[in-house]
Amino acid sequence: MCKSGTDDQILSGTEQNCDYLVDNLFEEAQKVGAICMPPTTVKNQVDVIIKLWKNGFTVNDGELRTYTDVANQQFLDSVKKGELPFELRKVFDKEEVDVKVEDKKDKVYLSSKKPMFHPFSGHGYRLGSATPRILSKVRDDHQGPDNKRHLPLVPLNDLEPITNVQIWLADGERIIQKFNVSHR
User: Fold this and answer.
1) What is the CATH number of the domain that holds 60?
2) Where does the signal peptide begin and end (predicted)?
3) Whether the model pTM is above 0.70
4) I need a labelling partner for 132 at 20 to 30 A (CA). Which of 40, 70, 78, 144 fits?
């Protein structure tokens, strides 16, 4: 069993050092005939890259897998014996599999993947009504005899661009006023 500790922490004698585990894995694989080869291309060949980190290992840059998990220990034992691990046999049953092991035991694995963005996929509900309900009308002192609102005059400069601003009130009335685009 391999247990990783901090750089300052000394592991007890019953637990193997991760450096020893990684070195042992390479030595055992070489004993059964594994050799270091430059990458080559073969048709119907699948490359599987196993990276051995200080705090675990990854397969094809997937999630970090700990050395302490029993299933992961069986996986590494198969690699150590020069056999294709069972879980890879299930996935790649018709292809030739080239397993490459990279020694990264001096580095701690840090996930560089950002969490995937999942946009909102639920249902929305409208709160309230589309138009506000009028409870009562209050008499407006600003309305004149012709029932129109008298808006304060805004001095316009005809040499500058002019725009209209439109406001819809809760009672459905709309007010339109002209402004220069430089007005605040």
Assistant:
1) 3.30.420.210
2) none
3) no
4) 144
Q: Is residue 124 part of a domain?
A: no
Pairing of strands 162-168, 174-180: antiparallel
Please report whether residue 20 resides in a domain.
no
Q: Would you say residue 119 lies in a domain?
A: no
Which residue range is the domain that position 75 belongs to? 45-103
d(C-alpha 155, C-alpha 36), whole Å: 85
Contact (Cβ atoms closer than 8 angstroms) between residue 47 and residue 76: no
Q: 162-183 pLDDT, tens per residue?
A: 999 888 888 888 888 899 988 8
Q: Give the tokens for residue 137.
A: 């009308």
CA distances from 35 to 20, 48, 52, 149, 172 (A): 19, 16, 17, 92, 83
Q: What's the Rg (C-alpha) of the chain?
A: 37
Number of domains in the chain: 2
- Give the pLDDT confidence of 128-167 residue by residue, as tens digits: 666 666 665 555 555 545 556 677 888 999 999 999 988 8
DSSP 152: P
Residue with tokens 């042992």: 24
